[in-house]
Task: inverse folding
């Protein structure tokens, strides 16, 4: 049995944000990722150090575009944003006060101040826009601060989470993957906001399950707001967060000496040899699939490790091969070079037939 | 993904090179395709950054936008692209042929050839669609006027993008998709989306395995992305300073270096595909493409409106029906053309191959009002036959003849299937020689059919029922369309 | 249901709505409602009436029931495709005329046919219509027939399988008239004020099943069982040999549910062991001389082969299961084809059995709903161990489309709910 602290070593825990929490739902069956995230290990640094850096670069053009769009919406006390909210929510919202909480310096103070303002608003009638409130959510037994980006509108006692994204909505349609990711992130905020209200004795149902997604419309900078129902995302998140608290069985199976401490030496290079870290990673099962390449910092490491497995060729490949785990075994069964074990007979028969068909057609 | 393709993928891993999953080519390949590799600025919905375009390997034309966020420059780009694109399209509007009247059609003229656009990947098709969307409604006079070629380009791009959704069409192909239909690599479908990696598996350089080549292909310095998205590091380190400097020559050389490797890959892809013999029904589908091209060209000539932003209720249902019919036909045609595709159906029990062991070519069915010729054949097969009696099957070798399954009985290894045949034997009560399979003949039978299906009837647009919102307002392009921001 | 019909008819004939929707959970008397509504419309003179069903079998079943319920002089016209041969149960009725054109049907005031057949008509208008199994019908099919009627009653089960297509349909997502929606969905999106009634009681599902199915698949509307504790009983008159097959059959007889759990293994979907288990369980139900005691047969009716069905997700699984049944005439079919059917005992090959990963197809709530709601007495689910883990490991990455109403229940959640219930009814093979 080891502990998250020991696994992480001297480094400060890598803090979660809505995006990383949302990522918990992209491959919840992966123990390696679950342990790394629970321990707050910097996966990006670890992956780079063991020779398989992640490739999640962001173009400055995209960043600029996002910032410009957000600034435009928030200009003049969120004037443009308010206009949109009135429209999409069909609310009168005559006057709205605006609280920018980013100005509060300390994290704790900011969280406290956010809680104070938000709970006070829960009973209120008049509208308030909260910019950058700081929320907290318990993730795997640790409190995680959820930072900026968030705008919450409270009107008539109901809270709406507003998510600003810079991908375009064209003729009412947007990239479904991007909308899905935005919806999951917004659901994290909804969840945190609901828990905050519940702790203060309010009805968590005051936070709407519909979030307002604000994106540029068509090919312009003009914003358009769309309501997105995040109920499914909420139920998945709640379930995965509950499961995160149960990583103890995985930790139990790990050696007490295991650590991914990346403490650098005087020259800034981590002290521990690469081979030792690679060996350590190997002690925790991964559930690699090609989709990880788009979602996880460790994906290239895991892909390398998964060479020769049928799963590395895609979930459907493994499935079509009857669950046979390795490339070599699949080929040996197909050629008849290896006699199938009892539980492989059906897969072997199918593979032999498939191999016969291929050779018949390609000869 | 079928089990045969899955097996081909594991074979590719062990042999180090991609494996064929088709014995013939299922797409039409033009003698003179227009290769189009667009790049877009990151973060924007559809801001053209550059494109390499041309119909021969030796003469690519580079189009570059100096300030991609500038509206006027975007339309200038569109106008320059239109010059290349429209003259290419027009070059096919020469010779026509007369198509005789069909079951529901009048005789018509059809161009003997049609343009073919090749883009690197699915993103390229998306770019064509969006560029078409952002240009086809523009006005050529008044405020925000653009070059007359710009809205025309928009309509044609939209035509090609919509055609790309049509199963079996080859008017707009994406290279990764076209190659992926014919080869299985030793990597995943996700990784196949990288054109360089895919070509690396299919045709690895000497001394390298496909896996080596694919790994190398993932380095954006050697193999820049095939677009429309660019490499973020390129954006930050090279593109941004070049745009900042406002130097066209610097920008051009930077973008040319990003695009040229893909240009080479595209033409390598073309020759890889050309080396495959075309399937027998490819020409038939290309004729449909030529029909579509001819029809749209005359629609544009007659001053028809640009395509609507979204399909109306009737248009959507009609399009869905067309696409579904095309899909069923395309599936059947590929299986008929290619024993390896047909084998996928044999593996799942939707087709079987066997040898004729008995044949009664003179059998007459006199149970009905009229005596009819209904020969029976017995086929013995080692495939896992999963047909129930009563099912109709066809053999690609005798497509005009239908067999009804009379019985399926297990043999020590495999099955014996008795089929009752109709069609393809003339009108008499004696089957002409050769029209009934003979003992010893090896045949494959499948439920896939390419038989004619009458198109479904739909209400007229102005008769859209109340269940679907009632008759829509007539669409007339208005000034809003023309002034729509593109910034 | 008697309480629902008058309200439904009053809404339909009030003149203030062109349509009325009746949602019917499994076995809630949907067909009875259609028959009674027809009879009421005949006696009130709300004629001519067109009736639309989705398959030829549904049309023929409905005709048999209509003929029994309608006054002798009322003729029914059966609109059919050319080449349709009326089964004897239809052909034997003098009241029924069959024809491929309306003109061939004679002066009938009730015309019934499949949606596909109705769609071939380009003229004619009926003042009244009933659309049966409206959730199985695709929006584009409704578009093709909607001009044939003025007012319509739409009846169907919202928990059934969604319509599907073999082609990519993303270009239409978000449109209110997206042709891939169900007929009811498109109708209500354009006419949100139409009255929607619900049949609140399932007369098919026993009280052991109604709460489970209701909670998992109808979380918002809900329904109850029309029968109570003790109204239904499955007796086993023959002795068992004491193995796991018997344990499962006994568990199902006692509690209405059993999970026959095979050891965890990733398999081909035609998992021979699971297919054989399905067949053996069906056979064992017969061998044990199961007798169904219910409000319909207080003294018990033997559960014969025709009262047992086996359901699976894929056609090749169906074929595999059939191959183990020999000459036994037990229905084995896919969820699609079991929609609307009813048996005493069902055996279900769980769609996720033996899988390493779930897909949207295998998670679809309608599929599991159809499979677990066909029985009057007991349902035995056959599955490889490990489904709860598979569900927990399932990535939540399906694309989200703008302006598309969220469909409930979510398949993932519904599957979790059903597995949680089955956990208490497990017979595990070691």
Result:
């Amino acid at each position: 049995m080891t502990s998250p602290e020991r696994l992480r070593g001297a480094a400060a825990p890598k803090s979660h944000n809505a995006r990383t929490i949302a990522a918990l739902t992209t491959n919840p069956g992966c123990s390696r990722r679950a342990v790394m995230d629970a321990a707050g290990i910097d996966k990006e640094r670890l992956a780079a150090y063991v020779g398989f850096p992640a490739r999640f670069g962001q173009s400055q053009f995209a960043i600029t575009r996002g910032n410009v769009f957000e600034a435009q919406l928030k200009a003049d006390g969120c004037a443009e944003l308010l206009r949109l909210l009135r429209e999409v929510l069909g609310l009168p919202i005559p006057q709205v006060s605006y609280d920018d909480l980013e100005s509060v310096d300390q994290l704790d103070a900011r969280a406290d101040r956010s809680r104070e303002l938000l709970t006070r608003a829960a009973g209120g009638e008049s509208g308030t826009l909260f910019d950058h409130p700081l929320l907290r959510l318990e993730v795997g037994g640790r409190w995680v601060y959820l930072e900026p980006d968030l705008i919450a509108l409270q009107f008539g006692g109901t809270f709406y989470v507003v998510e600003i994204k810079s991908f375009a909505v064209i003729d009412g349609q947007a990239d479904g993957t991007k909308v899905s990711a935005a919806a999951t992130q917004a659901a994290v905020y909804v969840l945190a906001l609901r828990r905050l209200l519940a702790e203060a004795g309010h009805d968590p149902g005051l936070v709407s399950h519909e979030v307002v997604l604000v994106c540029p419309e068509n090919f312009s900078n003009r914003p358009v707001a769309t309501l997105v129902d995040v109920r499914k995302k909420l139920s998945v998140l709640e379930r995965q967060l509950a499961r995160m608290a149960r990583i103890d069985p995985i930790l139990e199976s790990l050696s007490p000496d295991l650590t991914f401490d990346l403490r650098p030496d005087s020259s800034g290079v981590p002290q521990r040899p690469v081979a030792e870290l690679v060996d350590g990673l190997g002690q925790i099962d991964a559930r690699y699939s090609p989709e990880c390449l788009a979602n996880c910092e460790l994906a290239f490491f895991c892909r390398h490790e998964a060479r020769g497995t049928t799963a590395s060729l895609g979930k459907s490949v493994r499935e079509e091969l009857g669950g046979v785990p390795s490339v070599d075994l699949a080929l040996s069964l197909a050629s008849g070079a290896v006699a199938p074990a009892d539980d492989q007979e059906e897969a072997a028969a199918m593979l032999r037939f498939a191999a016969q068909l291929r050779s018949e057609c390609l000869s | 993904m079928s089990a045969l393709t899955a097996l081909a993928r594991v074979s590719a891993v062990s042999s180090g090179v991609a494996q064929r999953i088709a014995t013939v080519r299922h797409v039409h390949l033009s003698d003179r395709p227009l290769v189009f590799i667009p790049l877009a600025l990151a973060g924007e919905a559809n801001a053209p950054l550059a494109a390499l375009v041309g119909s021969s390997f030796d003469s690519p034309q580079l189009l570059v936008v100096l300030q991609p966020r500038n509206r006027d420059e975007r339309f200038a780009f569109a106008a320059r692209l239109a010059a290349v694109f429209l003259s290419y399209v027009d070059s096919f509007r020469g010779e026509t042929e007369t198509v005789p009247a069909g079951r529901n059609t009048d005789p018509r003229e059809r161009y003997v050839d049609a343009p073919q656009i090749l883009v690197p990947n699915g993103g390229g098709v998306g770019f064509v669609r969006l560029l078409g969307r952002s240009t086809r409604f523009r006005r050529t006079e008044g405020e925000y006027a653009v070059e007359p070629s710009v809205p025309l380009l928009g309509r044609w791009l939209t035509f090609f993008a919509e055609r790309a959704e049509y199963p079996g069409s080859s008017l707009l192909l994406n290279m990764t998709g076209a190659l992926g239909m014919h080869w299985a690599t030793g990597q995943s479908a996700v990784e196949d989306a990288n054109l360089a990696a895919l070509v690396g598996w299919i045709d690895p350089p000497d001394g390298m395995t496909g896996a080596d080549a694919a790994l190398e292909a993932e380095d954006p310095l050697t193999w820049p992305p095939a677009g429309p998205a660019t490499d973020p590091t390129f954006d930050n380190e090279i593109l941004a300073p070049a745009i900042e400097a406002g130097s066209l020559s610097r920008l051009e050389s930077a973008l040319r270096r990003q695009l040229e490797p893909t240009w080479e890959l595209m033409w390598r892809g073309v020759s890889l595909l050309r080396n495959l013999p075309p399937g027998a029904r490819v020409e038939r589908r290309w004729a449909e493409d030529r029909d579509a091209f001819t029809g749209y060209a005359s629609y544009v000539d007659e001053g028809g409106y640009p395509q609507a932003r979204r399909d109306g209720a009737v248009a959507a249902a009609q399009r869905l029906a067309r696409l579904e019919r095309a899909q069923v036909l395309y599936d059947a045609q590929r299986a008929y053309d290619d024993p390896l595709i047909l084998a996928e159906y044999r593996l799942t029990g939707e087709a079987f191959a066997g040898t004729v062991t008995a044949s009664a070519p003179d059998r007459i069915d006199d149970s009905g009002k009229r005596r009819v010729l209904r020969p029976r054949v017995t086929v013995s097969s080692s495939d896992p036959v999963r047909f129930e009696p009563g099912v109709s099957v066809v053999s690609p070798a005798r497509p005009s003849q239908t067999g009804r399954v009379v019985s399926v009985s297990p043999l020590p290894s495999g099955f014996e299937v008795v089929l009752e045949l109709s069609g393809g034997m003339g009108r008499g009560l004696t089957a002409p020689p050769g029209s009934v399979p003979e003992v010893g003949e090896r045949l494959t039978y499948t439920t896939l059919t390419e038989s004619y299906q009458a198109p479904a009837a739909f209400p007229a647009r102005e008769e859209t029922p109340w269940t679907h919102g009632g008759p829509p307002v007539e669409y007339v392009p208005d000034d809003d369309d023309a002034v729509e921001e593109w910034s | 249901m008697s309480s629902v019909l008058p309200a439904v008819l009053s809404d339909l004939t009030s003149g203030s709505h062109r349509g009325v929707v009746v949602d019917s959970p499994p076995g809630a008397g949907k067909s009875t409602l259609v028959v009674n509504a027809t009879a009421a419309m005949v006696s009130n003179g709300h004629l001519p009436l067109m009736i639309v069903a989705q398959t030829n079998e549904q049309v023929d079943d409905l005709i048999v029931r209509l003929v029994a319920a309608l006054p002798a002089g009322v003729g029914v016209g059966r609109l059919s495709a050319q080449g349709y041969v009326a089964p004897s149960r239809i052909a034997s009725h003098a009241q029924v005329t069959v024809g491929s054109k309306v003109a061939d049907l004679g002066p009938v005031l009730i015309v019934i046919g499949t949606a596909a057949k109705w769609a071939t008509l380009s003229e004619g208008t009926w003042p009244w219509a009933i659309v049966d199994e409206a959730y199985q019908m695709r929006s584009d099919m409704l578009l093709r027939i909607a001009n044939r009627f003025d007012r319509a009653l739409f009846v169907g089960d919202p928990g059934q399988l969604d319509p599907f297509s073999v082609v990519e349909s993303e270009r239409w997502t978000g449109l209110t008239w997206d042709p891939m929606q169900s007929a009811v969905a498109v109708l209500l999106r354009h006419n949100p004020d139409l009255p929607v009634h619900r049949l609140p009681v399932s007369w098919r599902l026993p009280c052991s099943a109604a709460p489970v199915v209701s909670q998992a698949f109808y979380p918002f509307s809900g329904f109850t069982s029309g029968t109570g504790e003790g109204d239904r009983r499955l007796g086993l008159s023959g002795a068992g040999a004491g193995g796991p097959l018997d344990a499962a059959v006994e568990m199902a007889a006692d509690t209405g549910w059993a999970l026959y759990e095979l050891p965890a293994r990733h398999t081909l979907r035609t998992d021979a062991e699971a297919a054989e288990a399905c067949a053996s369980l069906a056979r064992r139900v017969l061998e044990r001389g199961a007798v169904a005691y219910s409000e319909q047969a207080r003294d018990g009716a033997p559960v014969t082969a025709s009262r047992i069905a086996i359901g699976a997700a894929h056609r090749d699984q169906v074929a595999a299961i059939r191959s183990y049944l020999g000459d036994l005439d037990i229905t084995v079919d896919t969820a699609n084809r079991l929609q609307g059917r009813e048996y005493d005992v069902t055996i279900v090959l769980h769609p996720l059995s033996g899988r390493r990963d779930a897909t949207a197809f295998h998670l679809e709530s309608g599929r599991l709903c159809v499979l677990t709601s066909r029985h009057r007495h007991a349902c035995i689910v056959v599955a490889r161990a490990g489904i709860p883990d598979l569900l927990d490991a399932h990535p939540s990455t399906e694309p989200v489309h703008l302006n598309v109403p969220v469909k409930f229940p979510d398949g993932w959640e519904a599957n979790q709910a059903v597995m949680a219930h089955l956990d208490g009814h497990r017979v595990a093979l070691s």
Observations:
- Chain A has a mean pLDDT of 88.
- The first strand of chain A starts at residue 96 and ends at 100.
- Chain A touches chain B through 51 residues (CB under 8 Å).
